[in-house]
Design goal:
magnesium; HAD-SF_hydro_IA; about 45% helix; DNA polymerase, domain 1; 9 helices; Rossmann fold; alpha/beta
Amino acid sequence: MLRAVIFDMDGLLIDSEPLWVRAEIEVFGDVGVTLSEEDCTRTKGLRTDDVVGYWFKRRPWKGATPKDVETRLIERVASLVRAEGEALVGAPLAFEVARMKGRRLALASSSPTTIIRATLERLGLEDTFDVVRSAETEPYGKPHPGIFMTAAQHLEVHATECLVLEDSLTGLVAAKAARMACITVPFDWPNHDRRFALADATVESLAHVTADLVGDIERALAHD
């Protein structure tokens, strides 16, 4: 039985991926690292410090420390979210479906708390979730399952009683490593990456996360 639903944030609830790309190109450009939009897809779904570490290892720069760059990146993304962040299709319906049968809701994001707060305020979702967790407090970010395991603990449910909604392959791997069911909503729909077959279901938008779909997953889990 599914007792909780855990939502990712960036690229699922808010159209923030283009904002992240803009911020990364600007901030890394300031330290002499030229990134393309395609380059930015390599670190999609990773924690901010992991994004910075990824590029520092491959294209090391002088002057600003990785921590300085991380701080600038967080501040720039938060600023863009507050000014331009837009909700993605279907979130209200998905929240309604998720709440059925008394299920509890959590938000578990790779983004730091500063960006999570900016997003929840921008979208008016401050009171939507029972639990809000950032991977910045975890030893490891996604695809490590820690963020989802911690969310389940705070929801007071077992990992196998959770359904995760994710847009990235990184998040999907983390959810499955946590032994949780997962519906993926790829940001770049239609996505032909065969690795998304690991998900219990893949849909075009949150508007397609219906009570029937969740019920089908719940019944399939009961027979496992």
